[in-house]
């Protein structure tokens, strides 16, 4: 058994933020990572990905981005930044360690991987908002002869040139993948089941995130009012596109449904130009086609499921269900009950002001709480 004071599970931005702060504080820790590298989710993302958040609000603790990085940095630049971060703070995760069990034993936590057992005073869960792909079952898919893949496996549109590709879901990944497919010469279609909100990444020279950070200080009522004003511009922009728009303001939709607005990076213009076609929900699949709820039929070569992810914390944390909300995410960063003392969560919040900014702020609060008992 390996004994360690603080055990971090996950070597993505959340886990590295905690590790960086603990290193700076001189507090011992260990990081477990199920893959063979840090930031594995970022490495696996599609090629064209850029941050939707301003770089000045997306840094990890104590390490600014290089000055020559653009405002919205690329996936590859972000990966290089994470690699530099672990070097800067001498963070050496134990790789290829899949955690299968986390449970309390008296005043300590016992963490079991596929081949090791750890005992820790504090366990920080940083396994990510997007841990397990959410793949819905579509009626008739067993007879469909085309390919069905989740967006986590999508890299770029090169293999799909001249193919009919149907993207299921119009979140941020779905919208960008649809655009990428079109730019690579595929016939790009998007099936949208539920109403969405769409916002621009920038407005009059300001990032949408910076505007959110400014207005949120006035409270939800004021923010919702401002968001509804911006939404009037959206309604004009989507006119004639068949995109179902939520009756809620983007801020209300996030608070009540946990659904973020789509940050448009050019997809909407191609939809309006007729280069990307919007379809309703799928009723069923045949051997070579999708039939939609409006009766329309479309020949399809490949379906890409941009349908999101689950955290599925209950799969490896003992008795965690009381701590989770209706969407399966922790209700808080830590809990005062003795049964859960020493258990922390980071990276499971989706604030209006950006998840990477929230990770930085949350890591400060968590490490401050840990230091009190150190």
The arrangement of helices and strands along the chain is EHEHHEEEEEEHEEEEHHHEHEEEEEEEH
Structural class, from helix and strand content?
A: alpha/beta
The CATH topology of the largest domain is given as FAD/NAD(P)-binding domain
General shape: globular
Return Rg in Å: 22 Å
How far the N terminus sits from the C terminus, by CA atoms, comes to 21 Å
Helix content: 25-40%
- CATH architectural arrangement of the largest domain: 3-Layer(bba) Sandwich
Name the quaternary structure.
single chain
**Main pleated-sheet profile:** 6 strands, mixed
**CATH homologous superfamily heading of the largest domain:** FAD/NAD(P)-binding domain
| Nearest-integer average pLDDT | 95
> How many structural domains?
2
| CATH first level of the largest domain | Alpha Beta
Estimated share of beta-strand residues? 15-25%
Please describe what this structure looks like.
The protein has helices at 13-25, 40-44, 75-88, 172-183, 208-215, 220-237, 250-257, 267-272, 355-372, and strands at 2-9, 30-32, 99-105, 108-113, 117-125, 132-133, 147-150, 164-168, 187-191, 198-200, 202-203, 206-207, 262-264, 276-279, 282-285, 289-292, 297-299, 302-305, 309-310, 343-345. 37% of the residues are buried. Helices cover 27% and strands 22% of the residues. Helix 1 packs parallel to helix 9. It has two domains: 2-131 and 311-372, FAD/NAD(P)-binding domain (3-Layer(bba) Sandwich); 133-305, FAD/NAD(P)-binding domain (3-Layer(bba) Sandwich). The protein contains nine helices and 20 strands. By secondary structure, the protein is α/β, with parallel strands linked by helices. Strand 15 and strand 16 (289-292) form a beta hairpin. Strands 1, 2, 3, 4, 5 and 20 form a six-stranded mixed sheet that branches.
């Amino acid at each position: 058994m390996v004994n360690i004071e603080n055990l971090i599970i996950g070597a993505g931005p959340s886990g590295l933020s905690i590790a960086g702060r603990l290193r700076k504080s001189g507090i011992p820790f260990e990081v477990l990572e199920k893959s063979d590298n840090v930031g594995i989710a970022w490495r696996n993302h599609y090629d064209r990905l850029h941050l939707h958040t301003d770089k000045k609000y997306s840094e990890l603790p104590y390490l600014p981005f290089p000055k020559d990085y653009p405002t919205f940095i690329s996936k590859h630049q972000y990966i290089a930044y994470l690699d530099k971060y672990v070097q800067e703070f001498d963070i050496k995760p134990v790789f290829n360690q899949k955690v299968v069990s986390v449970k309390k034993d008296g005043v300590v936590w016992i963490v079991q991987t596929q081949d090791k057992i750890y005992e820790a005073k504090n366990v920080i869960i940083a396994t990510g908002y997007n841990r397990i792909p959410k793949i819905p079952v579509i009626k008739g898919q067993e007879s469909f002869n085309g390919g069905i893949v989740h967006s986590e496996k999508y890299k770029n549109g090169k293999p799909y040139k001249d193919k009919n590709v149907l993207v299921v879901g119009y979140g941020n990944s779905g919208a960008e993948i649809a655009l990428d497919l079109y730019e690579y010469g595929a016939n790009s279609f998007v099936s949208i089941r539920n109403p969405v909100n769409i916002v621009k990444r920038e407005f009059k020279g300001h990032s949408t995130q910076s505007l959110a950070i400014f207005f949120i200080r006035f409270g939800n009522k004021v923010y919702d009012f401002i968001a509804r004003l911006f939404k009037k511009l959206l309604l004009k922009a989507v006119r004639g596109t068949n995109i179902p728009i939520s009756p809620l303001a983007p801020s209300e939709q996030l608070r009540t449904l946990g659904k973020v607005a789509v940050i448009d990076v050019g997809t909407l213009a191609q939809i309006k130009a007729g280069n990307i076609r919007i379809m309703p929900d799928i009723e069923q699949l045949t051997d070579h086609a999708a039939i939609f709820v409006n009766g329309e039929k479309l020949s399809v070569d490949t379906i890409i499921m941009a349908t999101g992810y689950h955290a599925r914390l209950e799969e490896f944390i003992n008795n965690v269900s009381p701590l989770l909300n209706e969407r399966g995410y922790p209700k808080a960063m830590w809990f005062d009950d003795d049964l859960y003392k020493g258990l922390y969560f980071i990276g499971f919040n989706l604030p209006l002001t950006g998840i990477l900014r929230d990770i930085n702020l949350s890591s400060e609060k968590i490490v401050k709480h840990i230091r009190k008992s150190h």
